[in-house]
Every structure is written in structure tokens, then in C-alpha cells.
């Protein structure tokens, strides 16, 4: 998926759009030298976790994906064509010091080309976000409509 902006009309729409991003990521990962990092921007309730759920589903995650707010990070094994890949979901909302994230193995997680890394509240850890990220910004337009912008770096 190139740099683009889409409007979604429902949570289901947003999940489907995340599925499209997943497809594009799969092709990119073949020759990748590091993980795929996706930073999710947007206010509380915008739809970041909803987007993460759509991405996880498209990648064959079978369990429930919630915001790992209290755990900070959750790892999911992927299945189907994504077998052998891992999805890491970070929620940095409560992070006070980037060291908390570094201590979870951040550098090692990022360096593995078999990993997809999703980060909610990336601003909290701006100093350890590498240049190769993809930004996904979710903007709430009204109760059910969201503008979702993609920017690849
Ligand atoms: P965040 O993780 O950004 O705090 P959540 O994904 O947890 O936000 O919550 C978004 C809420 O907005 C959910 O209750 C979801 O059902 C609702 N919603 C309504 N319309 C949309 C839409 N178009 N896209 C995403 N979420 C939507
Ligand atoms: Mg969330």
C-alpha cells in the first residue's frame, strides 16, 4: 500500500483496511533485513486497537487481540501463510521511560525480519523508533467515520 488516505465508515471497514496493509507487508517481508514496524497514531478511542485487530486477524492470529495497556507488550504467533512470523503489539500509553521498552528486548525484536511490530502511542518512545517505520494515523471524523492515513518511510 502506497502513501494514501482512506475513509472508513465502521470498525469492520477499518479492520478490512488493516487487512490490505497486511497483504502489502507480506510482499515486502520477503527480502527484508529487519522487522516491519507500524506506528499507530491517534487519540484515545480513534481506532488504533481496532486497526491492530484487523491486522492480526489477516495474519492468522486466532486468539483475542486487546490493547495490551497493562502488559505494554503482547506477542502473537501467526498462522496460514504467515506461519513462522510473529506479531508484537506494544501499547506505550503508560510508558514513562523508554528503558521499559528496551528491557522487553526492543532492539532484538526490531532486528528480526520475521517480526511485525505494532506500536500504539509511539510518541512515548520517539527516541527509539527507527527511520524505516510505517505511520498509520487514525483520525475520528464522527461517531463511525475515521480518516486513516498511511505513510511509509
Ligand atoms: P484506540 O485503540 O485508538 O484507543 P479502539 O480501537 O480501542 O481505539 O476503539 C475505537 C472505538 O471506535 C471502538 O469502539 C470501535 O468499535 C469504534 N469505531 C466506530 N467506527 C469506527 C471506525 N470507522 N474505525 C474504527 N473504530 C471505529
Ligand atoms: Mg488502543
* Largest beta-sheet details: 7 strands, mixed
Helix proportion range: 25-40%
Give the distance, in angstroms, between the N- and C-terminal Cα atoms. Answer: 12 Å
Structural class: alpha/beta
Q: Beta-strand level of the residues, as a percent range?
A: 25-35%
Mean residue pLDDT:
94
With strands numbered from the N-terminus, the spatial order across the biggest sheet is 1-7-6-2-5-4-3
Q: Low-confidence runs (pLDDT<50, min 5 residues)? A: none
Tell me which ligands are bound.
adenosine-5'-diphosphate, magnesium ion
User: Strand-and-helix sequence, N→C?
Assistant: EHEHEEHHEEE
Overall geometry: globular
Write the layout of secondary structure elements.
Elements: E1 4-8, H1 11-29, E2 36-41, H2 48-58, E3 73-77, E4 86-91, H3 99-102, H4 106-111, E5 115-120, E6 134-140, E7 146-152
Parallel strand pairs: 2-5, 2-6, 4-5
Antiparallel strand pairs: 1-7, 3-4, 6-7
Bound molecules: adenosine-5'-diphosphate and magnesium ion.
Amino acid at each position: 500500500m502506497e502513501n494514501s488516505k482512506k475513509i472508513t465508515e465502521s470498525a469492520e471497514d477499518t479492520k478490512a483496511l488493516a487487512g490490505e496493509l497486511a497483504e502489502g507487508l507480506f510482499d515486502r517481508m520477503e527480502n527484508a533485513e529487519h522487522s516491519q514496524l507500524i506506528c499507530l497514531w491517534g487519540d484515545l478511542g480513534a481506532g488504533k486497537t481496532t486497526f491492530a485487530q484487523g491486522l492480526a486477524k489477516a495474519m492468522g492470529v486466532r486468539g483475542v487481540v486487546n490493547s495490551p495497556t497493562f502488559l505494554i507488550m503482547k506477542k502473537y504467533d501467526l498462522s496460514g501463510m504467515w506461519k513462522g512470523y510473529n506479531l508484537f503489539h506494544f501499547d506505550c500509553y503508560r510508558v514513562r521511560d523508554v528503558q521499559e521498552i528496551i528491557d522487553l528486548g526492543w532492539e532484538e525484536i526490531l532486528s528480526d525480519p520475521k517480526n511485525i511490530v505494532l506500536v500504539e502511542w509511539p510518541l512515548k518512545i520517539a527516541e527509539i523508533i527507527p527511520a524505516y517505520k510505517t505511520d498509520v494515523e487514525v483520525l475520528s471524523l464522527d461517531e463511525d467515520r475515521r480518516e486513516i492515513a498511511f505513510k511509509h518511510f
